[in-house]
Amino acid sequence: MERYLGDRTAGEYRAHMTAIKTITDAWHNGEIAVEAKRKAIAAENARFYDGQLGAAGACLTSEPRIYDDIAFVISDATGQPLPVVRHILARRRQENAVSAA
Question: Which residue, 74, 69, 96, 97, is CA-closest to 85?
């Protein structure tokens, strides 16, 4: 089954996926932080997709909005939605503050 690549060639797609793999490998090896990984992947997707939406309809070229680094890391590591992780952490912090008082 051949994948639809739009106006791109199979070679261009392979180069795009190689670039993303290079970025994720650097992250796995501890060479770059999560935020740098996401920015680099967003930049590569913007280049490849010309700033358009991806096949699933999600915007692949915007950088993440990070307000709570711990919540972001936990969300990224566990695959849980960021709002859920933020809520859980806020609740935990609130309970810790109450028990400390």
Answer: 74
Q: Summarize pLDDT for 12-33 with one digit per residue, the tens.
A: 889 999 999 999 999 888 898 8
Write down the residue that tokens 């680094």 correspond to.
Answer: 69
Domain boundaries, the chain: 1-62, 65-101
Quick check: pTM over 0.90? Answer: no
HSE (CB half, 13 Å, CA atoms) of 82? 11
Six-digit token pair at 85?
A: 């992780």
Distance CA 72, CA 65 (A): 9
Q: Tokens for 83, please give them.
A: 């709002």
Q: Which long-range contacts (CB under 8 A, 24 or more apart) does 33-41 make?
A: 34/72, 34/73, 34/76, 35/64, 35/66, 35/72, 38/63, 38/64, 39/63
For residues 27 and 61, give the distance between their C-alpha atoms in angstroms, rounded to a whole number.
18
